[in-house]
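Please produce the structure of this protein holding iron/sulfur cluster.
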Amino acid sequence: MAIEQKKAYFPLKEQIQLKAREHGFDRCYVSKPCVDQRHLQSLQNWVDMGMHAEMAWMAEELRLQRRMEPMQLLAGVQSVISVALCYKPPEYTLTAAASKPKTGVISAYAHGDDYHDVMKKRLKALALDLDLLFGKHEQRVFVDTAPVLEHALAESGGLGWQGKHSLTIHQNLGSWFLLGEIFTTADIEADLPAANHCGSCSACMTICPTQAIVAPYVVDARLCISYLTIEFDGFIPHPLRVLMGNRIYGCDDCQLICPWNGHAAKKTVLLDDLLKPRGENDLPDLAALLQLDEEAFRARFRKSPIKRTKRRGLLRNVCIAMGNAGDAQFIPCLMAVLDDEEPLIRGHAAWALGQLVDQVDRADTLAALVQMLEIEKESTVRREVELAIQHIRMSDE
Ligand code: SF4
Ligand code: SF4
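Below is the modeled complex.
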């Protein structure tokens, strides 16, 4: 169907931006559906070096092609509308969060409702308005899950540049926002690309607890706490566990240290009600989380992005945080999940008990682990228990 632009008082671009505002988005920019060669090369190198870890879908040929050629996602696409939806930055600082080891740190974007649901509904509503502006035409909306190089498109449309930590930074908003896109067959004038303002700064690379930013703009997912605590569904490598501290869902350290977020904090941003932080996800009590059974986990995180880890992933992370806390108070809670039905939880609980070796109850802990070994069938869990026992015995010598 031919696309007609409706006559209106405001220029077309402003009308789109106004509509985006009405639907609760904080910024809206337009780019053409082509990805800069620099971003394409970086993606290929990243995948070639295995830095996508176990996210096999990132390396699938078809999905890679779609990332590199947005045309493959919507036939006849002429423009990409990138929107930013702000969420509330954490109120704690890096040191304040770390000084409360009996609580867990959850990434700020996950303190409220699941943004995928919130944003998708709004993008669909915005797309309906675009039909009114341009006449009915083809559109597709994307929020994170589809193979879209959203940071590259946001950069070429002027929304923000990709920082050395790989997230998009807007000069006024900083990086505390989420991205979404509408691919449209409407031919809309593109905005100018965003310039990079990282300059000689490398604060995010220095602060990263696991040194996951292995080069400017390159994050090795295999080392990144965000990947490990959210996407990875296995046994976390031992050397990384001790570096995770009390981060139980994601990690905001590279954003907290970024000077552009210091600037942004002084500005007022619109805050979507649905993304408003729920107090319960702000430094939650670790002991209470470890007691969640399947039903309680589902009830508590039904509308939250945290459900993505499933109970086994979150409680695995909680066990690690307890092991890092160095607090004997956690020993009974950890003992109580040594017979959990999830191997991931049993194994990490055993590891955590081994870490609390300098605390009281050493004999009781050892006895519980030895008893566990007598009945444990899973080889990976058995290995964790054996190492924990070894660790405790060595500390006695
Ligand atoms: S999210 Fe955390 S672990 Fe990942 S790159 Fe940023 S600071 Fe490093
Ligand atoms: S901390 Fe510095 S280098 Fe890292 S993204 Fe922010 S400005 Fe860029």
